Amino acid sequence: MVLAVDIGNTNIILGCFKKDKILFIERISTNRSATDLEYAATIRMALHIHGYESSMLEGAIISSVVPDITGVVKRAIEKYACVRVTVVSPGVKTGLSILVDNPAQLGTDLVVDAVAGINSYPVPLIIVDMGTATTVSVIDKHKNYIGGMIMTGVAVSSDALVRSTSQLPKIAFETPKKLIGKNTVDCMKNGIMYSSACAIDGIVERIEDEIGEKCTVVATGGMAELIIPLCKRDIIIDEELALKGLMIIYNKNS
Fold first, then answer.
1. Within 10 A of 171 (CB to CB), how many other CB atoms are there?
2. Which of 105, 218, 221, 228 has the fewest CB atoms within 10 Å, i.e. is most exposed?
3. Under 8 Å CB-to-CB from 146, ≥6 apart: which residues?
């Protein structure tokens, strides 16, 4: 059994897999001030809830876009389970051909998603990852990563709107009942959520125009389940995408 950890700016996805089977996935908050012991305790609790113990682990793999805590989480796993930890970084085998200006600068979260994507879905492929930022990755018909874009995330947009105005309240996201809001909270919620959905629809259409082909579109990330159903485009939601990618990369390097 292998522990997989995907460290994002807001949340950390962790889970376990055995061979090609994902056993469980959990999300925890990214805490930049937590110690390795505190992360070790959280990891232990997550495994225990699902009926697993440290003695059952044979290895671990981490991808991270938060360098400050990558080492902390790595030490936490080593302290808890005493296993070898692979960190996704330049030099690690991924099987992904990256055709961008500086492949070493590509975020490991995008690499992990793309590795899972080319092994799970038809290409050409567009991957939308809706976390703190919303990222879009484009994989061509030859399974090359050819680029993408980074947009403001849904929650970041909401926070910026509240900070920059005097009377708008902080809101919770939930599926809008209809497009046109009748009060301030609904107007904010609908505006932020539907504008994000429309942006995704429009960007997918323009990417297809640019590459001249229809694409499979896959979405993942914490906000995907709320926003993607509002899109007009047919988009697959895959919350296991990051873990699938980590599983593939671990197996390539074991």
1. 17
2. 105
3. 99, 100, 138, 139, 140, 211
Q: What is the DSSP string of 233-245?
A: S--EE-TTHHHHH
Opening angle at CA 122, ends 118 and 128, nearest 5: 65
Model pLDDT for residues 32-60, shown as the tens digit of each residue? 999 999 999 999 999 999 999 999 999 99
Task: Decide which of 136 and 90 is more confident.
Answer: 136
User: What phi and psi, each to the nearest 5 degrees, are found at residue 199?
Assistant: -60, -45
Distance CA 200, CA 244 (A): 23
Report d(CA 216, CA 246) in Å as an integer: 21
- What is the model's pTM? 0.92
Which phi and psi (to 5°) does residue 212 adopt? 75, 25
The domains found in the chain, sorted by start residue, are: 2-87 (3.30.420.40), 97-102+119-242 (3.30.420.40)
pLDDT above 70 covers a percentage of the chain that reads 100
Active site residues: 109
231 CB-near residues (< 8 Å, 6+ apart): 197, 200, 201
Range list of H helices, the chain: 36-49, 67-81, 108-120, 154-163, 184-211, 224-227, 241-253
Backbone angles phi, psi at 45, to 5 degrees: -65, -45
Q: Helices 108-120 and 241-253 sit at what angle, rounded to 10 degrees? A: 90
- pLDDT tens digits for range 147-167: 999 999 998 888 888 888 877
